[in-house]
Amino acid sequence: MATISADRIAVSTWSLHRLLGTTYPHDLTTLDVGPEDATYGEGEESLLGLPSVLANHGYHRLEIVSFHLRSRDPVYLGELRDQLRVANVRLQTFLVDAGDISHPEHGARDTAWVASWLEVARELGAENARIIAGKQKPTRDALDRSVKALTALSDANAGSSMRLVTENWFDLLAEPAHVHFLLDKLDGRIGLLGDFGNWSGPNKYPDLQSIFGRAELCHAKAQFIDGQLDAGDYGRCVRLAEATGYSGPYTLIFDSESHGEWHGLGMERDFITSLELDSAS
């Protein structure tokens, strides 16, 4: 039986929001970083200190959510890049966590706003950057606006080693048919980050299975019931991803109140890396 290597495990700063405490909420009308907000309390660690702490817990892949960045100043970005290098932590993905490029009125503004954050992601040396495809209902017009904006963002990123991806998230990409439509129209210019936790309901597993053959990245969010990891759901999600041929990293997403963040992440990591898979998967 095959198992999943610990080298494929990553952590998102979203999963450590209580440890970090502070966020810098986005305002789409400005390119400036928002004022500091103790969203999750005082926090115990800074983003600059996180790479070494992460490595000490045995993780060497990180995803950074844009609202955790306190500055876009090149000196600060250089310090963060240096901390990642010293700790031997890869910046796997930079998550641009706002904007609606499919919006009929604000789409152009939001596309420019996203583009400015992609510059930050490149400066940090991110291997990937995730862009929200849109939040509108999936009409043909909204999908076309998203395709146009994503094409423009991809063109602006040409020549960079950073890969742009989008996610099965919000109304625009709430079902497989629209994910496939968008990716087909983009013809490989944008990749897919598949998220276990964004879809639910009776069609969750066949819907995820439909798209994971195209996924390059994965947000592996576990559900917790009365403090216990829902092994049935989590195992089924990982198995279906592997069965489609998915071979990318699993980024642990943890937001349960039942456990401390490091403990909860450890539960998710241990579950994935100990899961026995069909060697044919």
Task: Record keyword descriptors for this entry.
TIM Barrel; two-stranded antiparallel sheet; 10 strands; eight-stranded parallel β-barrel; 281 residues
Give a written overview of the molecule.
The chain is an alpha/beta fold and 281 residues long. β8 and β9 form a beta hairpin. The chain has an 8-stranded parallel β-barrel, surrounded by 4 helices. The protein is globular and about 50 Å long. The chain has one domain: Alpha-Beta Barrel (TIM Barrel), CATH 3.20.20.150. It contains 9 helices and 10 strands.
Describe the secondary structure blueprint for this structure:
Layout: E1 9-12, H1 17-20, H2 50-56, E2 61-65, H3 74-86, E3 90-95, H4 107-124, E4 128-130, H5 140-156, E5 163-167, H6 176-186, E6 191-195, H7 204-212, E7 215-221, E8 224-225, E9 228-229, H8 231-243, E10 250-253, H9 261-274
Parallel strand pairs: 1-2, 1-10, 2-3, 3-4, 4-5, 5-6, 6-7, 7-10
Antiparallel strand pairs: 8-9
Helix pairs in contact: 4-5, 5-6, 7-8
| Spatial strand order of the main sheet | 1-2-3-4-5-6-7-10
Which ranges are low-confidence, i.e. pLDDT below 50, for 5 or more consecutive residues?
Answer: none
Nearest-integer average pLDDT: 96
| Number of separate structural domains | 1
CATH 2nd-level architecture: Alpha-Beta Barrel
What coarse outline follows from CA principal-axis ratios? globular
By DSSP, the count of extended strands is 10
Number of helices: 9
Strand content: 15-25%
Mind telling me the CATH class? Alpha Beta
Provide the helix percentage.
25-40%
CATH superfamily membership, which one? Divalent-metal-dependent TIM barrel enzymes
CATH topology: TIM Barrel
Distance between the termini: 10 Å
Radius of gyration: 18 Å
Question: Describe the biggest sheet?
Answer: 8 strands, parallel, barrel
Structural class: alpha/beta
SSE succession? EHHEHEHEHEHEHEEEHEH
